[in-house]
Protein backbone atom coordinates (compact mmCIF):
# COMPACT_ATOMS: atom_id res chain seq x y z
CA UNK A 1 0.00 0.00 0.00
CA UNK A 2 2.93 2.30 0.68
CA UNK A 3 3.79 2.26 -2.99
CA UNK A 4 0.19 2.87 -4.05
CA UNK A 5 0.03 6.19 -2.31
CA UNK A 6 3.45 7.13 -3.52
CA UNK A 7 2.39 6.37 -7.07
CA UNK A 8 -0.92 8.16 -6.82
CA UNK A 9 0.48 11.16 -5.00
CA UNK A 10 3.41 11.26 -7.33
CA UNK A 11 1.03 11.39 -10.24
CA UNK A 12 -0.93 14.10 -8.47
CA UNK A 13 2.19 16.18 -8.02
CA UNK A 14 3.88 15.46 -11.34
CA UNK A 15 6.52 13.29 -9.68
CA UNK A 16 5.42 10.39 -11.86
CA UNK A 17 7.07 12.02 -14.81
CA UNK A 18 10.38 11.94 -12.98
CA UNK A 19 10.18 8.36 -11.74
CA UNK A 20 8.97 5.11 -13.28
CA UNK A 21 6.40 3.47 -11.01
CA UNK A 22 5.10 0.79 -13.40
CA UNK A 23 4.51 -2.63 -11.92
CA UNK A 24 4.38 -1.41 -8.33
CA UNK A 25 0.59 -1.62 -8.01
CA UNK A 26 0.50 -5.43 -8.03
CA UNK A 27 -1.72 -6.91 -5.29
CA UNK A 28 -2.88 -3.52 -4.01
CA UNK A 29 -6.32 -1.86 -4.07
CA UNK A 30 -5.01 0.62 -6.66
CA UNK A 31 -4.37 -2.24 -9.06
CA UNK A 32 -8.15 -2.47 -9.32
CA UNK A 33 -8.85 1.26 -9.64
CA UNK A 34 -10.41 2.41 -12.87
CA UNK A 35 -9.57 5.81 -14.38
CA UNK A 36 -12.22 7.61 -12.32
CA UNK A 37 -11.05 5.92 -9.10
CA UNK A 38 -7.49 7.06 -9.82
CA UNK A 39 -8.67 10.62 -10.50
CA UNK A 40 -10.70 10.74 -7.27
CA UNK A 41 -7.77 9.31 -5.29
CA UNK A 42 -5.27 11.75 -6.85
CA UNK A 43 -7.61 14.66 -6.10
CA UNK A 44 -7.90 13.53 -2.46
CA UNK A 45 -4.12 13.17 -2.21
CA UNK A 46 -3.55 16.61 -3.69
CA UNK A 47 -6.07 18.14 -1.27
CA UNK A 48 -4.50 16.35 1.72
CA UNK A 49 -1.00 17.47 0.83
CA UNK A 50 -1.76 21.01 -0.26
CA UNK A 51 -4.47 22.19 2.11
CA UNK A 52 -5.51 19.83 4.87
CA UNK A 53 -4.50 20.62 8.48
CA UNK A 54 -2.95 18.05 10.80
CA UNK A 55 -5.35 15.45 12.24
CA UNK A 56 -7.86 16.02 9.42
CA UNK A 57 -8.91 13.55 6.74
CA UNK A 58 -9.90 13.73 3.11
CA UNK A 59 -12.25 10.98 1.93
CA UNK A 60 -13.01 9.88 -1.60
CA UNK A 61 -15.54 7.46 -3.06
CA UNK A 62 -16.66 6.30 -6.47
CA UNK A 63 -20.32 5.18 -6.15
CA UNK A 64 -20.15 3.43 -9.51
CA UNK A 65 -17.24 1.10 -8.61
CA UNK A 66 -17.65 1.27 -4.81
CA UNK A 67 -13.92 1.96 -4.51
CA UNK A 68 -13.21 4.37 -1.67
CA UNK A 69 -10.60 5.59 0.73
CA UNK A 70 -9.36 8.15 3.19
CA UNK A 71 -6.13 10.11 3.51
CA UNK A 72 -5.38 11.54 6.95
CA UNK A 73 -2.70 14.14 7.62
CA UNK A 74 -1.13 12.81 10.81
CA UNK A 75 1.37 15.64 11.21
CA UNK A 76 3.34 18.31 9.44
CA UNK A 77 7.10 18.55 10.00
CA UNK A 78 10.34 19.73 8.43
CA UNK A 79 13.16 17.62 7.07
CA UNK A 80 16.35 19.29 5.85
CA UNK A 81 14.47 22.59 5.74
CA UNK A 82 11.66 21.22 3.55
CA UNK A 83 7.95 21.18 4.46
CA UNK A 84 6.78 17.60 4.97
CA UNK A 85 3.66 15.66 5.93
CA UNK A 86 3.06 12.26 7.42
CA UNK A 87 -0.06 10.67 5.91
CA UNK A 88 -2.14 7.61 6.69
CA UNK A 89 -3.77 6.21 3.57
CA UNK A 90 -6.59 3.69 3.57
CA UNK A 91 -8.15 2.42 0.34
CA UNK A 92 -10.52 -0.35 -0.71
CA UNK A 93 -11.36 -1.58 -4.19
CA UNK A 94 -12.98 -4.81 -5.36
CA UNK A 95 -12.60 -6.43 -1.93
CA UNK A 96 -8.93 -5.51 -1.59
CA UNK A 97 -7.98 -3.29 1.37
CA UNK A 98 -4.82 -1.34 2.02
CA UNK A 99 -3.55 0.77 4.92
CA UNK A 100 -0.23 2.56 5.02
CA UNK A 101 1.65 5.48 6.54
CA UNK A 102 3.84 7.63 4.31
CA UNK A 103 6.10 10.64 4.70
CA UNK A 104 6.41 13.12 1.86
CA UNK A 105 8.33 16.38 1.52
CA UNK A 106 7.81 19.20 -0.93
CA UNK A 107 10.88 20.08 -2.99
CA UNK A 108 10.91 22.17 -6.15
CA UNK A 109 7.11 22.24 -6.11
CA UNK A 110 6.76 18.44 -6.03
CA UNK A 111 5.90 16.05 -3.21
CA UNK A 112 8.56 13.36 -2.84
CA UNK A 113 8.40 10.20 -0.78
CA UNK A 114 10.87 9.94 2.11
CA UNK A 115 12.40 6.64 3.08
CA UNK A 116 11.90 5.59 6.70
CA UNK A 117 15.60 6.27 7.39
CA UNK A 118 15.11 9.92 6.38
CA UNK A 119 12.29 10.52 8.86
CA UNK A 120 12.95 11.81 12.36
CA UNK A 121 10.23 10.98 14.82
CA UNK A 122 8.87 13.85 16.96
CA UNK A 123 10.24 14.16 20.49
CA UNK A 124 7.92 12.66 23.15
Describe the model.
By secondary structure, this protein is α+β, with helices and mostly antiparallel strands. The model is unreliable at 11-24 (pLDDT under 50). Helices cover 23% and strands 36% of the residues. A five-stranded antiparallel sheet has the order 1-2-3-4-5.
Task: List the main descriptive attributes of the protein structure presented here.
2 helices; 124 residues; 36% strand; 5 strands; single chain; alpha+beta; five-stranded antiparallel sheet; elongated; 23% helix
Concise synopsis of the structure shown:
The protein has two helices and five strands, in the order ααβββββ. With 124 residues, it is an alpha+beta fold.
Q: Tell me the fraction of residues in β-strands, as a range.
A: 35-45%
Helical content band: 10-25%
Biggest sheet, strands in spatial order? 1-2-3-4-5
What is the residue-averaged pLDDT?
A: 81
For the termini, the CA-CA separation is 28 Å
* Contiguous helical run count: 2
Low-confidence stretches: 11-24
- Shape designation: elongated
Reconstruct the topology from this structure.
Elements: H1 2-12, H2 35-51, E1 57-61, E2 68-79, E3 82-93, E4 96-107, E5 110-113
Antiparallel strand pairs: 1-2, 2-3, 3-4, 4-5
Amino acid sequence: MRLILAIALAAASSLATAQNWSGLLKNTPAERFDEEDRRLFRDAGRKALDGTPDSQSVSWENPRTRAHGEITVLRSFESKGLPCKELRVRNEASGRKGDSTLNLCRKDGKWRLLSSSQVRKPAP
